[in-house]
Amino acid sequence: MKYFGLIYAGLxxxxxxxxxxxxxxxxxxxxxGLLQAVNSLFSGAADFLGASRLITxxxxxxxxxxxxxxxxxxxxxxxxxxxxxxxxxxxxxQEGRGFFPQFAVNPRRLRxxxxxxxxxxxxxxxxxxxxxxxxxGRNLAERYGWKLGDIVPLNSFIWTKAGGGRTWEWxxxxxxxxxxxxxxxxxxxxxxxxxxxxxxxxxxxxxxxxIFVVRIDDPDEAERxxxxxxxxxxxxxxxxxxxxxxxxxxGFIRQLGDIGLIVNLITGAVFFSxxxxxxxxxxxxxxxxxxxxxxxxxxxxxDRQVMLLVLAEAFLLCLLxxxxxxxxxxxxxxxxxxxxxxxTDLRVWLIAAVSVVLLTLAVGLPPALTxxxxxxxxxxxxRHEQSPLERALHLLFRVGSRREAEAQA
Amino acid sequence: MSTFTQxxxxxxxxLRSIPERLAPSLVIxxxxxxxxxxxxxxxxxxxxxxxxxxxxxxxxxxxxxRGGSQGELSSFLSIASMTLVKxxxxxxxxxxxLPLASGELIVITEVPRPGQDTGANVSLRGIEPVGxxxxxxxxxxxxxxxxxxxxxxLVGSGAAQQFAGLAVGRxxxxxxxxxxxxxxxxxxxxxxxxxxxxxxxxxGAFGRSGVSSILARLRDPADLKAMxxxxxxxxxxxxxxxxxxxxxxxxSGNLTATIGVLAGIVAVIMGFGAVFGALNTMxxxxxxxxxxxGTLRAIGFGALPVVASVMAEALLLSVLGGLLGATVAxxxxxxxxxxxLGAGFTQVAFQFAVTPGLVLQGLLIALMIGFxxxxxxxWRAARLPVTAALRGG
Lengths: 409, 393
What we know:
The structure holds two protein chains of two kinds.
Chain A: H1 4-11, H2 15-44, E1 53-58, E2 66-67, H3 70-75, E3 80-88, E4 91-92, E5 102-105, H4 107-113, E6 117-118, H5 121-129, E7 133-137, H6 138-144, E8 151-156, E9 167-178, H7 181-185, E10 190-193, H8 194-200, E11 208-216, H9 222-232, E12 240-244, H10 245-254, H11 259-288, H12 290-298, H13 303-334, H14 346-373, H15 376-380, H16 388-408
Parallel strand pairs in A: 5-10, 7-9
Antiparallel strand pairs in A: 1-11, 1-12, 2-11, 3-5, 3-11, 4-8, 6-9, 7-10, 8-9
Chain B: H1 3-16, H2 22-54, E1 61-66, H3 79-86, E2 101-112, E3 119-127, H4 130-133, E4 139-143, E5 152-156, H5 157-162, E6 171-174, E7 177-186, E8 195-198, H6 199-206, E9 213-217, H7 224-233, E10 239-243, H8 244-249, H9 253-288, H10 290-298, H11 303-333, E11 337-341, E12 347-351, H12 356-383, H13 386-390
Parallel strand pairs in B: 3-8, 5-7
Antiparallel strand pairs in B: 1-9, 1-10, 2-3, 2-9, 4-7, 5-8, 6-7, 11-12
Helix pairs in contact in B: 1-11, 2-9, 2-11, 2-12, 9-12, 11-12
């Protein structure tokens, strides 16, 4: 630590160059933070769900609703604690400008399958006893300023009413919260009472449940219970596919395609550009200071110490850039509205930390080794070797121009 | 010497000295190549999707679906409505005197991608025999047509490539029964992402009584408006006809917008990084040439030629970078086949397309970065006091 002043002085010897390099590094790490935060969302989105719930869907597709008569048979599978049915409603609020998911469910069963949603006793009672009742998550209620008793008209692009209309009116009877911070952040949805939904829709569609949400007692039994449920309906016209809720959610995201690959390719391109840029800046800085480094060696610094000084300089530069860039990325994701749950979480910071170490080694090691090999006499006399990068480039270029000359001759 | 000759001479001299400053000069090239490469690659994705969806429709054909439905999936027509719609006078008739209209049923099925066990939504489309005639680009690539009444499937080329277990001869299970893949087809567009079978077979197997939509050829594309008025006026019907090419072309809008925003954010941030890199390079180029610039000014060269020479170097290097980035994007991504969730909530398979327009766009961005990165250093070069410069800054 006592050399910090020396490192700092070396780094800001040419203020302009260091500031510009630093600015590039900040831009690169801002982008890395943002991109990997998006990646985190897609890879770990469903982690918080745990394994205590299964989703039973039609094996053909979750968009084909399963009939209600499956419910008691799923309930009878040993190890099942509670079952609810859930139908995606596909409603649009304010002519499609507001989008949030709504599900038509059985209110009493919702409470049993999702103990993570908390609401006062009166709210639950009203939801159970109001046919056209709906409950909304706290975030959603705040976004649209809904209060108890408000009527919310939703235009469903899937479900037509028996009379032919598509606008359904729902009465807000409760506002729910999450049991902890993670769930509270996700309170962006709306549950509708299945009673009005089933009564109001086209007679041809009545009695269809949608998918089933199955809460189980022991998460370790998930695999067994899932296959027990599917076995019950095998070779029937309502074959089912049961999987953990987290896998079901992940399946949704995977539908979008290989986002992870695209994000990682961009990150790679950014990293490569920045590597080159910082590498050149570092080797320039060291080359200009070769006489100074020689003086340090004259004063008694060992080869190792000089090498570490240069390496530390590279590390400080990368660290500073990464820190500022990541803070920028965190600030940017912090101001996003709750429906974009992109956060620079621990995983992103870890990736940034690993990147700093790799970048330091890649850009710092070659000039550091040059500094170590430095012969005092040569350096003071102004005879110095080229950096490895420059040597490679010059070699490449000279070979190219020689060939050209030969071709001309 | 005229100003123009001065500019030319200094610029040439300057460019000839680039090899001596190779590494810093490459910083501009590599930095800008990164920005342009990423931008072009991202935008080639939406260009590819747009090309696929744009190639799907015929201008003289219409898709008829339930009024107000967002796509074929959320549309439903009873057999009675379908029969009624097909009799509309605007619809062309075939050699056999029957309307050239195919009532089609869409069911979403799940087929896994290779190496995954969660399924992706793939459309299963039940078509009438005339449905093939209504896709003029239809071509069997392998195997044979499905037979009506037997649970057989034709698989689109895009779907066959993107999803697992769709080779000819393989079988799939939907709703407790088994379906055999008997052939692969190509029709140049979004239909290539689908599985096709006979409509009535699909209706029976999936317990659906009606159809999702009707694809019909018009006698004259101009009849569409009159047809819609007739359909709307009929109290028995609640349907809407849309031109087929407009219907599919409109489906790429959402994804194109999303990719556009993403590409914009990435390009701006990366662009900042590249500008700082370019500034660094050009400042060090100017400082390396300080004495040279001082000498030139002392023997009578103006400030403008000095500025021009620095700018020319910055712009030349950035164009090189832009070309490099676009070339890498082209080699790595042009024709790269992917599939994603389309507007109909089912998969659309398409290929990335690096178009000349995108390359041009990339080069423009490269020039902008080069311009911004060269301006301040050029300004400094021009304002160097001659005496100080001659002494080496």
